[in-house]
Design brief:
The protein is mainly beta. The chain is 9% helix and 40% strand. The protein has a single domain, classed as Deoxyuridine 5'-Triphosphate Nucleotidohydrolase, Chain A (Distorted Sandwich). It is built from three helices and 14 strands. A four-stranded antiparallel sheet has the order 2-11-6-8.
Length: 168
């Protein structure tokens, strides 16, 4: 696969680039939710991806998340592997003394698609199969049926196993 495929069931959930110079794409939540004080909540984003080998995703908090909302990504920076086919989840920690309520479509995080190195026998190298210096094309698909059966259409060894599942 030479494209980055992003699939959702609702167009408003597609990650978007706020300005032409933005390094990342904003990611929203797919439903209303609340996080009680000192708790961590898993928040649904309504997107799934299939990435080329040698690419991955970093997920960061938006800069306004702690100062305006009172939440932070519980794991600091999340890394999503190219073979993960499940829904992207945010683990958000409420560090305030109040319950934080968030409405659907609130932009909470941002994602960055990046090439990564592999280490083999003491040498670092980029994945070279189908790898070019040009970034892969983004393909957006809004289709509830495909979204619900995504892992079958884009199979991988990892599949839909999510947070904390590597090695199980």
């Amino acid at each position: 696969m030479s494209k980055i495929l992003i699939c959702t069931y609702e167009e408003a959930l597609l990650p978007f680039q706020g300005t032409p110079g933005a390094a990342c794409r904003d990611l929203s939540c797919s439903q209303d939710f609340e996080v009680k004080s000192s708790e961590i909540a898993k928040i649904w984003t309504g997107i799934k991806t299939a990435l080329p080998h040698g690419r991955a995703v970093r997920m960061y908090a938006r800069s306004s998340l702690p100062s305006k909302i009172g939440l932070m990504l519980a794991n600091g920076v999340a890394v999503i592997d190219s073979d993960y086919r499940g829904e992207y989840l945010l683990q958000l920690y409420n560090f305030t003394a109040q319950t934080v309520k968030i409405q659907k479509w609130t932009r909470l995080a941002q994602i960055e698609f990046f090439p990564h190195l592999y280490i083999k026998e003491g040498k670092s190298y980029f994945w070279t199969e189908n790898f070019s210096k040009e970034p892969p094309e983004l393909q957006w698909i809004v289709d509830a049926n495909l979204y619900n059966d995504f892992a079958n259409h884009y199979p991988s060894q990892r599949g839909e196993w999510g947070i904390g599942s590597t090695g199980k």
